[in-house]
Specification:
Blueprint lengths: L2 E2 L6 H6 L4 H11 L5 H10 L2 H4 L4 H4 L19 E6 L2 E9 L1 H6 L1 H17 L4 E11 L5 H21 L3 E8 L8 E11 L14 E6 L9 H4 L20 H15 L4 E6 L4 H13 L2 E5 L12 H6 L5 E6 L4 H10 L4 E8 L3 E6 L2 E7 L20 H7 L12 H9 L8 H4 L10 E3 L6 E4 L6 E7 L2 H6 L1 H17 L4 E10 L6 H21 L3 E7 L3 E2 L2 E2 L3 E10 L16 E6 L9 H6 L13 H16 L5 E4 L4 H10 E2 L4 E7 L1 H11 L9 H7 L9 H6 L5 E6 L4 H8 L11 E12 L6 E3 L4 E3 H9 L7
Parallel strand pairs: 1-13, 4-5, 9-12, 17-18
Antiparallel strand pairs: 2-3, 3-6, 4-6, 7-10, 7-11, 8-10, 9-11, 12-13, 14-15, 15-16, 16-21, 17-21, 19-20, 22-26, 22-27, 23-26, 24-25, 25-27, 28-29
Helix pairs in contact: 7-8, 7-10, 8-10, 15-27, 18-19, 18-21, 23-24
């Protein structure tokens, strides 16, 4: 009979591991004794914010998590799963790797990619694309530039080695991310329904295999490290950052995909945060069984590792596989074929406890349900209250900025802004061409990837404007969902579900938790309106440093379904002579805008763009159904930088370095401006004004019109012969409160090489050289990478 480790832990040791006195007392009560240090380490990891969501789970449960397409509830599996027809499902998820990247940007970002890929392929889905949502300090700041460039290289090197194309993403720069940057990695995969693997260890006497790389000391305390603010002492915890090997991951992926089709597979799970401790306890709890592990059989890459280190190691490229005993030879054959280690380290048991043995000693004996999210792990709702200082900022008038002294100079400055300029220097470091899936690559509203062996596709996007969330967390978070939906809808895709990565500061600060709770409410209401589920995701708290908290960033990963890839709508103008339309409810605001940030040295104030979920629904339906009828030549969302930036991006084809010139009709623009001038609540729509008024206002708010940001709007181009059909079709999307706004504002001109002619882009009230615009836009990130 193995002897038990008797050495008891202390409250001081618990506090050093991130547990508080109440939690330590609760553990003693559960075990009916004081835990030993190994047990305490397991509890500290599983009860950390990163693993247990103890300060967020009660609010996360309020998300709408099911739809007619759902094949798993949010949080039930490693990633979200939605039915897409023909016996296929899309599996997708977004997760953070923020603190590791802030400490060691190359490995932190690289292993973020590796971890999210394992969440996908351990479910039996082959990853078909990836995305990333990044936040850094301004690239003019030396440390921010170093973090940014090394993180992008880590993402590129790992993803390129795996052979998974990058289809989209976003990057946003703000001084609040100087020390605590954000790296949110998203992956999307496809699986046949019958090959879908679960992460449950059901049944007694089944075998538990550790498959993949050897276990080392990297990543120990990674979960607890991600559950505390960054400080000047954080650099001493570099061992909490994992080290990745993409070539081992590639082999592991092929092994996982073959195992998923193997008879006798019970469950499979990635070893991520808290390593073996988390995977074994979560799989056991889901299967309503216990698990015995013998650490003597775990392959180690470092000598002298203790049971504490083995159980908490977050070494990469590993997974736990539970199979029926009759399938062990089949498993070993698959692993041997790919030269991947597979070692029997335990079995499931009837008693619902995690029992860990090492050198003939019982190192840990813990009820599995007491460890996991939704079981015995603590659940809190911290105090919350709005910030009076943010309310003051939100109520500040921006009237003085509504008129520009030089529209040309203002637009050139915006185009060169790191938040608006070309992302080509970033995505050229990623392989978006590998495989045969790419339809629309990164750099525009959304990427489009083919569903293998079909004529259908998926549009994918990540979105969030953290300034909007800072000023108004409910509207800002709702706007993030709606922008992501618009970004797939302009490609002709119907939004079917989201995953989210909720990046916030210390939840124990009431103002931070208020932003978090209001963001949850905003995301929920937007998803309910769109009738799409939140399929899962990640919460990342404690994104604070000695500089203060980050701007709140609930990143949204959206997936949309395209039934016919022949009907995908491009972002850019396509044909000379086509009509340019402003579609949707155009109510621009300078609150939280890039224009304000650019003109006022980083100020964030004013009221962000208003949002009507009813109007968003109408616009999204119009875009997707117009695409289905092939009425559109191009479509581009209006967002950061406003109307002028959207027009410029619609006219520029980066891949061919060509421009379509365009000419806007200034009398029409004048009437649109009049429709919202001096009407803050925008009771009159632009379309109503165009039809009914010819008055020319004085003191025209040009900068508000050209650079104000708005929800519920898009720029379209339409062939002249389709113009009447489109306008007639749009009437079917009228609301009871207003007709659907579809306003012809100009015409597309000729297509020319950027450097071969002096194209003048006619914005109605001003003109701009295409060469000057291109130079500003294409060189905005020059030197940052």
């Amino acid at each position: 009979m193995p002897s038990r480790i008797r050495q008891e832990s202390s409250l001081h040791q618990a506090e050093e591991l991130g547990l508080n006195e109440e939690e330590y007392s609760q553990i003693c009560s559960i075990l009916e004794r004081k835990p030993n240090l190994i047990e305490l380490g397991i509890y500290s990891a599983l009860w950390s914010e990163h693993c247990s969501y103890k300060n967020s789970i009660l609010l996360l449960k309020t998300f709408p998590s099911e739809s007619e397409h759902s094949l798993a509830k949010a949080g039930e599996e490693n990633a979200g799963v939605l039915d897409i027809g023909d016996g296929l499902a899309v599996v997708f998820k977004i997760e953070s790797h923020n603190h590791p990247t802030a400490l060691e940007p190359y490995q932190g970002a690289a292993t973020g990619v590796g971890g999210i890929m394992r969440d996908i392929f351990t479910m039996g889905a082959r990853p078909i694309c990836s995305l990333n949502s990044l936040r850094f300090g301004h690239p003019s700041h030396a440390k921010s530039r170093s973090l940014f460039s090394r993180a992008v290289k880590g993402i590129g090197d790992y993803g390129n080695s795996l052979g998974i194309p990058v289809m989209g993403g976003e990057v946003f720069f703000d001084r609040s991310f100087r020390t605590n940057c954000l790296v949110n990695a998203m992956a999307v995969g496809i699986v046949r329904h019958e090959d879908l693997s679960r992460s449950s260890a059901e049944g007694v006497g089944n075998l538990v295999y550790l498959v993949g790389a050897r276990t080392g000391r990297d990543g120990i305390h990674g979960a607890s490290f991600a559950s505390a603010d960054l400080s000047s002492q954080s650099s001493s915890r570099r061992s909490a950052v994992q080290v990745g090997d993409p070539f081992s991951e590639k082999l592991l992926m092929e092994v996982a995909l073959e195992i998923s089709r193997m008879d006798g597979l019970i469950g499979m799970q990635d070893l991520g945060a808290a390593g073996l401790s988390c995977a074994s306890s979560e799989m056991s709890a889901k299967g309503k069984v216990g698990m015995e592990l013998n650490l003597d059989h775990v392959p180690l890459r470092e000598i002298g590792m203790s049971p504490f280190e083995i159980m908490l190691s977050e070494s990469q490229e590993r997974m736990l596989v539970v199979i029926e005993e009759e399938s062990k030879e089949a498993l070993q054959k698959i692993c041997s074929q790919w030269e991947v280690d597979s070692v029997l380290i335990g079995q499931t048991q009837k008693e619902r406890k995690l029992k860990v043995y090492h050198q003939e000693r019982l190192c840990a004996e813990i009820p599995v349900d007491s460890l996991v999210l939704g079981g015995g792990a603590p659940q809190y709702i911290p105090e919350r209250r709005p910030s009076p200082e943010i309310k003051t900022r939100r109520n500040r008038s921006l009237k003085s900025l509504e008129q520009s002294s030089c529209l040309q100079d203002d637009l050139l400055s915006l185009l060169s802004s790191p938040n608006i300029c070309s992302r080509r220097p970033i995505y050229e470091q990623y392989d978006s061409e590998v495989g045969i899936g790419r339809v629309v690559g990164p750099g525009r509203d959304s990427g489009v990837v083919r569903i293998p062996n079909t004529h259908r596709g998926l549009a994918v996007s990540t979105d969030c404007n953290p300034r909007y969330v800072f000023l108004d967390p409910y509207t800002g978070a709702s706007s993030a969902v709606c922008e992501a939906a618009r970004n797939v809808a302009v490609r002709g895709a119907k939004p079917i579900g989201i995953t989210n990565c909720l990046n916030f500061g210390n939840p124990m600060i009431p103002e931070n938790y208020y932003m978090f709770s209001e963001s949850i409410r905003g995301i929920s209401d937007a998803c309910l309106a769109l009738q799409i589920p939140v399929t899962g995701g990640n919460v990342s708290f404690y994104n604070e440093s000695e500089d203060g908290p980050i701007l709140p960033t609930p990143s949204i990963g959206m997936v949309g379904l395209i039934q016919d890839l022949k009907k995908v709508v491009p972002s850019c103008f396509q044909k000379s002579g086509s009509i340019i339309y402003l579609a949707g409810w155009f109510f621009p605001s300078l609150g939280g805008s890039e224009y304000l940030y650019d003109k006022k040295d980083g100020r964030i104030e004013g009221s962000p763009p208003s949002l009507s979920l009813e109007k968003e629904l109408s616009l999204i339906a119009f875009l997707t159904e117009s695409a289905e009828k092939r009425l559109l030549l191009s479509a581009h969302d209006l967002s950061l930088g406003g109307l002028a930036v959207s027009l410029l991006c619609s006219s520029l084809r980066e891949e061919t370095e060509t421009f379509f010139d365009f000419h806007l009709h200034s009398p029409t623009l004048e009437k649109i401006i009049f429709s919202f001038q001096d009407i803050p609540d925008a009771k009159k729509t632009a379309q109503e004004s165009v039809k009914g008024s010819s008055e020319t206002p004085s003191g025209r708010p040009d900068s508000l019109f050209y650079f104000g940001e708005t929800n519920s709007s898009a720029i379209l181009s339409v062939a002249p012969e389709k113009q009447k059909e489109l306008e007639d079709f749009s009437r079917g999307f009228d609301l009871s409160s207003s007709p659907f706004p579809l306003i012809p504002i100009g015409r597309v001109g000729s297509c020319e090489k950027i450097h071969s002619s002096e194209i003048q882009l006619d914005f109605g009230f001003f003109q701009l050289s295409a060469q000057d615009a291109s130079k500003a836009y294409m060189n905005g990130l020059k030197g940052a990478l």
